[in-house]
Amino acid sequence: MIGAEIEHLIKLLARLPGYGPRSARRAALHLLKNRESLMRPMSQALTVAADVIVACPQCHNLDTSSPCSVCSNPARDGSQICVVEDISDLWAVEKTGAYRGYYHVLGGTLSALDGITPDDLSIPHLVARAGDSAVREVIVALSATIDGQTTAHYLSEALRAAGVTVTQLAHGVPIGGQIDYMDDGTLSTALKSRKAV
Amino acid sequence: MIGAEIEHLIKLLARLPGYGPRSARRAALHLLKNRESLMRPMSQALTVAADVIVACPQCHNLDTSSPCSVCSNPARDGSQICVVEDISDLWAVEKTGAYRGYYHVLGGTLSALDGITPDDLSIPHLVARAGDSAVREVIVALSATIDGQTTAHYLSEALRAAGVTVTQLAHGVPIGGQIDYMDDGTLSTALKSRKAV
Q1: CATH fold for the domain made of A74-168
Q2: Best B15, B16, B23 residue to mutate vs chain A (most A CBs within 10 Å)
Q3: Nearest Cα residue in chain B from A5
Q4: Residue B138 CB burial class (10 angstroms; 0-12, 13-18, ≥19)
Q5: Is some CB atom of chain B closer than 8 A to the CB atom of A154?
Q6: pLDDT per position in chain B (197 positions), as tens?
Q7: From 1.10.8, 1.20.120, 1.10.3470, 3.40.720, which CATH number describes the B6-52 domain?
Q8: Cα–Cα dist A148/A146, whole Å
Q9: Global pTM?
């Protein structure tokens, strides 16, 4: 009933994160109604991005240049490497403007359940990078989940030989967070890590 | 920091229904990680669909052929026209397999608030189609909202001169619906429209 071309497009759209068959249908209609302003530009943007975006061989970030614009910036602090799980985390940290060092994208976290071992991630590469004499500190910015914290612990062991300081993000009440909405784990961690005002 | 090509793609993705800047970022990363299996095929599918899909001049459905595959099917019942608000509604009715007549997509509902008048919709075209001697019944399948019901009422007035029977979808408890979860409006309508078992 619907043309095979729309069916094919809907199937592809349904594979986008957060989309299912029904929302993909809506998206396909929305695209068809905005053919010149959205559909054709998006088709072109997809091809252009697929052509020019490459993975940085140093930090595994995605960019048009190789190494990426962060790694190739000599003004950044070469003594620090911030370890993140995914590129979206790198973007989030970078957006704060609070960090001026380099990055290292792991590509995931260790997970016994999913069978993800250190060799599936770019951990050996990180250990090699940390061996550089300029590097003093590795900041582990992984999610405060079981898998994230297991990975952080593994990294601190693996990096011991490299002679760098391994730190991790502080845990506590988020800025703007209300005490009575906090879970027990966050509150007790915040209490243990309390600081002088 | 992110390449201009990714930024541009994220901006376009953020215009998809249900997507915002954050989810568009996730989608862009997902696409870049599945370049050959998803990103390039999607780019191509968008161009192909934009090229071949046309609006049916008769019922305003979208299809590769003009008139669309429903309108050009002589096996369908020419005495019935089902009026729907949008193409997705046409797809929903068609999927039931319970209807064998033709369709008419209005492209919206009348709305005093949004300033949508009969001339903004394909209502004059519907009145012209209903004037055809073969048409006996116009089935109004619009949403059971204020705007939908206002439009249904307007249609029944506008189609009176064409000498066709105007019907609308039954209102009541949905199949699988639990009585104690129904709102007052639905329950009282279902009570008024009760049928012999």
Answers
A1: Dna Topoisomerase Vi A Subunit; Chain: A, domain 2 (3.40.1360)
A2: B16
A3: B49
A4: buried
A5: no
A6: 577 889 999 999 999 999 999 999 999 999 999 999 999 999 999 999 999 999 999 999 999 888 999 999 999 999 999 999 999 899 899 989 999 999 999 988 998 888 888 888 999 999 999 998 899 999 999 998 899 999 999 999 999 888 899 999 998 999 998 989 899 989 998 899 898 88
A7: 1.10.8
A8: 5
A9: 0.79
